[in-house]
Amino acid sequence: MQFSNRTGSTRLNPIAQAQARASQEGRALRSLNDSNPTKHGLGLPQLGVYGAEPRGPLTARQALADFLSQRGGSVSPGDVYLLSSTSQAYSWLMKLLCNPGDIVLEPRPGYPLIESIAQLEGLETRSYLLQYDGSWTIDLARLTQLIEGSDGSRVRAIVLINPNNPTGSYLHGPERERIVELCREHDIAIIADEVFYDYSLQPLPRRGRLAGEQGVLTFALDGFSKILAAPQAKVGWIQVSGLSNEVEEAKRRLDLIADDYLPMSSIVADQIPALLSQVPAQTHLVQERCLANLGRLQALLAAPQCPVSLLHPEAGWNVLLRFPAVIDENELILYLIERYGLTGQPGYFFDMSANGYIALSLLPEPSAFEEGVRSFLEAVEALLS
């Protein structure tokens, strides 16, 4: 696996080697230039003594590893990095894997965040396509062309959103097998964003997490923003897995990035074990809301001659609705703003391949959700007439 030259050399200088030996031998060294005020009686007593841990405080990582292990498989706290968000995780991993000008593959339709972060990192993106024919599937032929084509040598990572936003589609078995095979053959890492994984909208026994994938170097992203419905908590994580030699090299280099940023506040980290205990109840609460609103949406769309249809969702908080393409997406949203005081995200925000789509959140309280759907349907009827 090729890593970027932005992380420099992982070879320790003689002083760092000697410090490491002393640590292994149990000898505590006192630094002449220790500038940590909390070690010298100068910090706030209620905050305790600060110890820089680039991957995040060990107690919090151990609690998180225990939580992740309950999902399946054994997760070591040494394979987990705590940070402020999945957005920050994307940025770190692009630094780790890519030099400026390299390429990251991303899904279309998809949320535009990845392209925006890649641009900030000086990278290019190429889109692989999701096709809809009653359900969503990845165009594996197109993906293979991107990897094996003229620019394939610059492809360093593929982003897999499992399940995708806004299509609500999980990565399925044959797709996963082929993508892992391609990545292994071409030294491409997987960045797996699984923040919506727990919010299934229908039973799918063959779905599976990419977290813990052993066939190729994989970085699985998750966080409290979705599983706790708590974006303000600002806690995300990276779980590293894959072939052991690549994992160890990746972690050595990722440690350098983490050490430069030191993103996890100990004040926040101290709350992680207690917050993890609330995940099952919070996830259930959100899922029940989404399922109830999805059922009401399906009932409203089942009315005779309804011109709007639902693109079949498998998971997530959002769904895609299709309306007659004779209505311009901008015209519809502007009409909703002026007539109903509502706004929304049209399909072109997600690079849908044609006109006539809008994303709809399943999170609002039931009465507000139904009112919004009815207003949207009225707007479609008005513009059609």
Walk me through what this model shows.
The structure is a single chain. With 385 residues, this protein is an alpha/beta fold. The protein has three domains: 10-50, no CATH class; 52-276, 3-Layer(aba) Sandwich (Aspartate Aminotransferase, domain 2); 279-384, Aspartate Aminotransferase, domain 1. The chain has 13 helices and twelve strands. The strands form two sheets. The chain has an eight-stranded mixed beta sheet, sandwiched between helices. β5, α6 and β6 (189-193) form a beta-alpha-beta unit. The radius of gyration is 23 Å and the shape is globular. The termini are far apart. Its cofactor is pyridoxal 5'-phosphate. This is alanine transaminase. Residues 1-12 have a biased composition (Polar residues). It comes from Bombiscardovia apis.
Query: CATH fold name of the largest domain, please?
Result: Aspartate Aminotransferase, domain 2
What CATH architecture of the largest domain would you give? 3-Layer(aba) Sandwich
What share of the residues lie within helices? 25-40%
Mean pLDDT: 93
Indicate the low-confidence ranges by residue numbers.
none
Keyphrases for this structure?
385 residues, 13 helices, Aspartate Aminotransferase, domain 1, alpha/beta, Aspartate Aminotransferase, domain 2, 4-stranded antiparallel β-sheet
